[in-house]
Amino acid sequence: MNREQLKPEISKIITTGSLKTREKMQHICNLIQENLPTYNWVGFYMAHETEPTLHLWSQAGEPTDHTVIPFGKGICGQVAVSNKNFVVDDVKAQDNYIACSIHVKSEIVVPLFKNGKNIGQIDIDSNTIKAFNEEDERFLEWVNEQVATIL
Ligand code: SME
């Protein structure tokens, strides 16, 4: 399946009444990670309600030690502050970067907005260099819009 084919599948997960929100987010991570070959790790980090930290709610791919990330730290922490998509063609070229796996070569982080507020993000790691383009940005913005409706 490609990105466009995944959209109806994601919509189905979002509207499945028997699943809780975090289960839906887990299913979405699994679906994307299993179907898009360059999406080697997929996770949702969500902001703490009062503290300036991101917390890993769901993930597909290798387990990571980085389940809590302070705002400002790493690519994820920078997006929590900037409210902007961050596409990293080559993670080696980044100073403020948290390595989760030695295999990762590129990364994309897209903020998730609810009522205009940046409340979390989707984070994708790839073992391929320069794996992400503007179509990935548009796709992941769409995914986050869907997830925002259940948060
Ligand atoms: N590389 C991220 C940390 C999260 S892992 O990719 C799962 C960062 O620099 O924020």
UniProtKB/TrEMBL annotation:
It holds the Pfam family GAF_2. Residues 25-151 form the GAF domain. Coiled coil: none annotated. SUPFAM superfamilies: GAF domain-like (SSF55781). This is GAF domain-containing proteins. It comes from Nonlabens marinus S1-08.
